Amino acid sequence: MGIAPPSTHPSKRPVFFFDIDNCLYPRSKKVHDHMARLIDDYFMTHLALTQEDANQLHHKYYQEYGLAIEGLVQHHKVDPLEYNRLVDDALPLDEILSPDPQLRELLKSIDRSKVKLWLFTNAYVTHGKRVINLLGVEDMFEGMTYCDYAGKMVCKPHEEMFEKAEREAEAEGAECFFVDDSRLNCEAAQQRGWTTVHKLEPEDEEPTKRASKHQVRSLEELRDLFPQFFKERGAANGKI
Q1: pLDDT of 45 over the 70 cut
Q2: Which run of H or E residues covers position 92?
Q3: Cβ count within 10 A of residue 96
Q4: Whether the Cβ atoms of residue 216 and residue 222 lie closer than 8 Å to each other
């Protein structure tokens, strides 16, 4: 699926995959905290659980599947689209997120003739589009690979989800670059042969063992890690 207008650049380029939540915006926005409360509410309402049991089951499914909804679908036969409506689409994102000029400038400074920018998220498409629209970067990406709540449920870090991303973005293995805040996702991408960047927050402790070859605490560090994909500073600012 296209996000930006159809590209005039060569179709066969390396692809840089960007996770969305807690990656394009910082964890300090507390979107995950809002989502956790809505997920627990869903567990309590639809599974008749106490707050404590809902919280424990939520975290169990997240650890086992990478996504709470996958556990719900497999074990409780819930409707994924109803879950999305009551959880992800119910988030008060309009009150939390706003256009991010620094993020937009970073993405604009990437030379699209050399690399394709692609979103790669475990959220459903409605949530992904909502976030990038609020951040003001909806026209910076050529497509999005998302967890299809309306079809076959598969998500990162499962191998099938990475295969789906490669197929949709038309790249594989060494042609793939990836940044994500999830350790599990980064480890899976690294094992697949992707050039992987684990995004930490400035306040996070240094991991005992890195999740991937590269690690950043700001997306701005991508400029130094992958200078081959960035325009010259003057060109990026429209001065050349």
Answers
A1: yes
A2: none
A3: 14
A4: yes
DSSP 49: -
DSSP 130-151: HHHHHHT-TTS-SEEE---TTS
| Cα 137 from Cα 24, distance rounded (Å) | 10
Neighbour-count burial of 206, counting CB atoms closer than 10 A to its CB (0-12 exposed, 13-18 middle, 19+ buried): exposed
pLDDT, tens only, 118-170? 999 999 999 999 999 999 999 999 999 999 999 988 899 999 999 999 999 99
Three-class DSSP labels, 154-185: CCCCCHHHHHHHHHHHCCCHHHEEEEECCHHH
Distance from C-alpha of 128 to C-alpha of 146, rounded to nearest angstrom: 8
Q: Contact at 8 Å (CB) between 179 and 19?
A: yes
Could you tell me which of 111, 124, 142 has the C-alpha nearest to residue 18? 142
Spatial separation of the C-alpha atoms in residues 199 and 19, rounded to whole Å? 10
Task: Please check whether residue 13 is in contact with residue 111, taking contact to mean a CB–CB distance below 8 angstroms.
Answer: no
Q: Scan for tokens 């690294």, then name that residue.
A: 190
State which H helix or E strand residue 213 sits in: none
